[in-house]
Amino acid sequence: MLEKDICAHLDEIARDIISKVPVDIKDKIYFAGGCIYSLANNRQPKDYDLFLVDNSLVDKLKQLDIWDYTSEYALTLGKYQIITKYYGEPYDCVGQFDFKHNMYYYKPFTGHIISANEEELEKQFDCYNFLHTNELIFNENRARDIDGVFLRIGKFVARGMIISKQTKKKIKKRTTKKSLREYKKSRKSNRNYY
Domains in the chain, please, with CATH? Predict the structure, then answer.
């Protein structure tokens, strides 16, 4: 799908979620993560992750009685997830994602998808360089959750992505058995996240 088509689709999704949430979120949200990657590769997104530019609305949103599911990470309404654990300006927030194919964001009604990949920006790559690969490329500099990164590899591989042994080894080297056990235990109570 072309950028203009992705933007038009996400604008439609934004209109829908804005109409369903009785709090003014229009200028406070942006799309990021897998939905942009899926659309760029002509796939139906499994869900749409929306991030908030700051935490000013988090408490108001959590108090609403419209959510299908809530967790410490997100508020879910159908295929929409408003992420509450991580928030901030798009470049800063999305720049900390695990894998580079997910490091793109879209502010509704702007008409442009933006990369938060420092490598793309520094080398002036085509903005879609990492959107059109099925290889998992680890964000070594900024990934915020190394244990979760390692455990999420399986999810991406199940969706047809590949990861080199070298990259997998690099990620695993940064984890510990104890931290992986603790992470798995904490994840059991938050299955809807990621």
Answer: 3-188 (3.30.460.10)
